[in-house]
Amino acid sequence: MNITTLSQTHPNTLIFLHHQNPNTPKFTHSSLHFPHHKKTHFKTTLIKCCNSENKEPQKWEKMIPKNVISAEKILRSIAGATSGPICQFIAKPETFLHQVDPRIKLAWLLVLVVLPARSHIYMRFGLITFLGILSVWILPRQVWTDQLGRVALLSGVLFLMLGLGADTLPMVVQSRTPPPSMMGLPSIPPSYDGYSYLLFKLGPLQLTRKGLSVASTSACLTFSVFQSASLCLTTTTPEQLAFGLQWFMKPFKYIGVPVDEVILTLLLSLRFINLVFDEVRIVALGIVSRRINWQQLATMETVEVFFTYIRRIFKNIFNHAEQITQAMTVRGFRGDSSSHKIYFSSASSAPIANIVSVMTLVGLIGAAALSEYILV
Asked: Is the Electron transport keyword given for this protein (predicted)?
């Protein structure tokens, strides 16, 4: 029966025409029957459905990478990144930095923040190399392989973005004087000493001396801050850090600075950061272990899972904070830090390690000062 005969014999029928694969019959029909009514007249409607399963994707669709970012990969990366937190103290194996006084370590941290902005570009890359070698020597293998890779990736991305983006868009400047050719003057001769402000150019992107200076300063500062903090927190207990900071802040007591409250807050923060890392890792592992079929979830359902994940983290963190508050109240703390005795640990300091650390710090400062005059 063809379409015309079918529509004439069933005037009150919706006819759906399905376009199938070439190996199957070309058209099939489905019908929906409506009851006859005296005052209603239905017309026959043909609806043609095209099946596009065998249609090849466009060329630009083939070039788009698929399954690069997924919810499961994000959760697995979070669980893996927090398995070795940056603030976790590692007691064994005991290294050279474990024996250095915490006050000298704090002085090193201050110098490593100031030096990248005041030293030459070669000195900056030398400082990054020094911190990388020191991390490989001090930290365990499973810790420095994870931390150095992530910090180096962050610093590299920052270097490329700032280096290629500092002078990529030239400023629109209109000269107030006509060019020398219009005034009958000879053109300015080019430089013969090999100096060039533009170092590299690739299409609209260009690397200049200004961009190289800004990028190297920012990347070196980022790497030194993250990696020096990692080395200090890995080889120093929170009590030792609080003792060293209290020693430096003692003169501020005479001008009314609440040093005791600042030190207690620092000590609680260093203790609390470990709990935050543990909660982030444990909750992420709990979601991954349930083996959710993310392909069957809609976009809003995936977003709801992540909101549940964040809400669960904050709930657990607040529970830990409440437990810490109750423990401090039971031990007699009533809010006055000056009347509550806090015991710090300042042991495990070797004189030889302290002398070597101070001499190395003085040599590093002297090399950075000389680089401003020698390396021009």
From this structure: no
List Cβ neighbours of 365 (8 Å cut-off, separation of 6 or more): 111, 115
Measured from the Cβ of residue 112, the count of other Cβ atoms closer than 10 Å reads 24
The overall average pLDDT reported for the chain is: 76
Q: How far apart are CA 330 and CA 320, in angstroms?
A: 15
Pick 357 or 93 by higher pLDDT: 357
Q: Is residue 173 part of a domain?
A: no
**Residue-number span of the structural domain to which 34 is assigned:** 3-55
Handedness of CA 340, 343, 344, 346 (dihedral sign): positive
CA dihedral angle for residue 258, residue 259, residue 265, residue 267, rounded to 10 degrees: -170
Kindly state whether residue 121 falls inside one of the protein's structural domains.
Answer: yes
**Tell me, what's the pLDDT at 346?**
53
- pTM of the full structure: 0.67
- What does the pLDDT average to over 10-35? 49
**If you compute the radius of gyration of the chain from its CA atoms, what whole number of angstroms results?**
34
My answer on whether 99 and 217 are in the same domain is yes
Rounded Cα distance between 127 and 107, Å, is 16
Q: Domain count for the chain, please give it.
A: 2
- Which residue type sits at 135? S
CB 211 within 8 A of CB 166: yes
* Amino acid 42: pLDDT: 44
State residue 49 phi and psi, 5-degree precision: -110, 130
* CB-based contact 215:158 (threshold 8 Å): yes
Of 38, 66, 89, 37, nearest in space to 230 by CA:
89
Report which residue type is found at 301: E
